[in-house]
Amino acid sequence: MLAKVGGELSLASSIHDLARHLNISIGTVSRALNGRADVNADTRQRVLEAAKKLNYSPNQSGRSLRQGATRSIAFMLQPHPGDQQYGEPFFIPFLTGLQARLADYDLDLMVVMGEPGQYQQERLRRVVETRRADAVVLANTRREDDRIDYLSKAGFPFATLGRSQSGGDTYPSLDIDFERAGDEAVDRLVARGHRRIAAIRPSHDLNFGYLFLDGYRKALERHGIEVDPGLIADGFINEAGGYQVTADVMLSKDRPTAIIFNNDAMALGGCKALAEMGIRPGHDIAVIVIVDTPLCRYFSPALTAFRPSLEPMGQRLAEMLLASIPAFAGPEGPRIIREVWPLELVARDSD
Amino acid sequence: MLAKVGGELSLASSIHDLARHLNISIGTVSRALNGRADVNADTRQRVLEAAKKLNYSPNQSGRSLRQGATRSIAFMLQPHPGDQQYGEPFFIPFLTGLQARLADYDLDLMVVMGEPGQYQQERLRRVVETRRADAVVLANTRREDDRIDYLSKAGFPFATLGRSQSGGDTYPSLDIDFERAGDEAVDRLVARGHRRIAAIRPSHDLNFGYLFLDGYRKALERHGIEVDPGLIADGFINEAGGYQVTADVMLSKDRPTAIIFNNDAMALGGCKALAEMGIRPGHDIAVIVIVDTPLCRYFSPALTAFRPSLEPMGQRLAEMLLASIPAFAGPEGPRIIREVWPLELVARDSD
DNA sequence: TGTGTTCTCGTAAACGTTTACGGAAAAACG
DNA sequence: CGTTTTTCCGTAAACGTTTACGAGAACACA
């Protein structure tokens, strides 16, 4: 179906055009442009001038083919299903940081989107197998993640935003300290007199749900509070899921006096359920959200939440990824780095 | 700096491997895979089986080089400056629709991000000149947009989300009917008894700001209300800008009784200014926002707003773009389509 | 002057595809 | 059986790069 596209560009000059124009060989032109040593100083000068004059820039397909590298990194962005109208604002600042650091290394960032419903595996395979990118960055890691299994089995370079139990220690990862956030949230609530604290998290095997719960449990134990399974609930990771599961928890015979939500969308749905029951966050119940978004801030009452520093995280993960790839890393060779970053509590009106 | 990356992939089999394995020529293999007519039915069968067995998939760089087309479309995503913590949720559903339709044509979507502050021109040139994509999609169109000038001068295929005065009728565009939304907003407010209605919009030469104002003016005239320049104000397109300009307008001697904000972030900042002055939207003043986001919905009071249907718009713009490219379009040849879609009023509590 | 080094450049192959062309074999037709 | 058409496949060039190799010229040194 597709033939030549954009072939009529007047600005599409090749290395051959430069060579012909200067009456030298294409080899010399290429060496001059790539800054190799074995080219005379003033032929290099002439080549660079001609390149500017003829508006030359290298064809990336040709270069990729020859070098076996595309100089682009793929980020797999997966919209959540049921996330009807608007997507996750979470990723934009992260991507901003990621892209900025990659640009320092002259690498392009390419965001690959999947259909909202289906899982990413197919799209990921496509990127890898057709060699559209040199490495990929994964997000929304699951506890057992077949994308990670696939990539490490294939020996394809990648890094993850979020940890997983899959793949061992073979890839760099950067995660938020959900465990500590869960712990601190409980700490804060206990200090304010709460003993019946509910934990609401997404199902789907998303790994941060487990980490959060670990911290929650650990803090309860430290305070000598028995963990009540009836206060721990999973739901679909969107507003409807949060509504549903919150309603369930609040209808149990022994209600919690505080809820920690592991996701902002679920918190919003939960608050809707609370409102319908006449229960006011900040007055009748305490609410804390683990990952802050603008919605938490503008909601009424404004929700107390733990906030990550997304843009620096994006920058850092780019560095970690690059350091793990032999062809990019310095003489020391590849290094696998894993980091877990703290969150900052933003105290507002809901607890 | 970069050498071979991922070259050790066990799954990287080429068309030569297939040919050797089957003892036929690479030409035949290629023809079989591409479904050409001049290949025997069972050699095609054997090729397809071998391709599956050896896990073959074509190297995109090789294919792109030969065909002069990359089979990918670039979307230029530009985070607004000062948009500190979280970015625009606006684009995710739009991109979801765009990607879905492109996938139907076996095209990849590649989102190219720029630095938050600087303008996109440089990054755009890079994509075009290194021929990383076959076409691009632009957003945040300005009234005079040098990206559009550049692309149409270069003869590079593109489409825009939003109109512009640049480039003439040479490219497809899909826009929201800001004019009508501004008109309807005034209508609604006048029907509720307002006569002093302020219009607050972004500066930056963003085109939708002009369109909105046209509708606003037209509706006022229709109702026989004189346009008061003191009620029209421009500000930086973020919360701080909205705060600033709203405070200014409210400090004028003859205050408005209603405000139409042309941007959600500015509306949020404006409401903060109002709150500090003890003015309550929905009681002491009416507030309407032109483009709805989840923030409008969760804000307190929930903001009345006009909502676009972003995902269908993404799908439609993909179709329009493809129809405009000779190599993609059907036998009728290229067609330039321009569409303007209506918004839906979501009445909430602020007016 | 002869020999060895250093600079500089051209030649050609290679990366993985697709495709125009031609030719051999098979089929169709008289 | 001879001729023409059809079917099928191999050959080779081409897309735009990079780079290993070698060779000529200039230079240094004895």
Notes on the structure:
Two copies of one chain form a homodimer. With 351 residues, chain A is an alpha/beta fold. Chain A is built from 13 helices and twelve strands. Chain A has helices at residues 15-22, 26-33, 41-53, 60-67, 91-104, 121-129, 146-154, 178-191, 207-222, 239-251, 264-276, 294-298, 310-323; strands at 72-77, 108-113, 135-138, 158-161, 173-176, 197-202, 232-235, 258-261, 286-289, 304-307, 338-341, 344-346. Chain A has a six-stranded parallel β-sheet, with helices on both faces. In chain A, strands 7-6-8-9-10-12 form a six-stranded mixed β-sheet, sandwiched between helices. In chain A, strand 1 (72-77), helix 5 and strand 2 (108-113) form a beta-alpha-beta unit. Chain A is elongated and about 90 Å long. The relative contact order of chain A is 0.11. At the A-B interface, helix 4, helix 5, strand 2 and helix 12 of A face helix 4, helix 5, strand 2 and helix 12 of B. Chain A binds a DNA duplex (30 and 30 nucleotides) through residues 14-16, 24-28, 30-31, 34, 36-40, 43, 58-68.
* Interface with most residues: A-B, 77 and 77 residues
Shape of chain A: elongated
Taking the alpha carbons of the first and last residues of chain A, their distance comes to 59 Å
- The percent range for strand residues of chain A is 15-25%
- Domain count of chain A: the total is 3
| CATH level 1 class label of the largest domain in chain A | Alpha Beta
* Low-confidence region ranges of chain A: 1-10
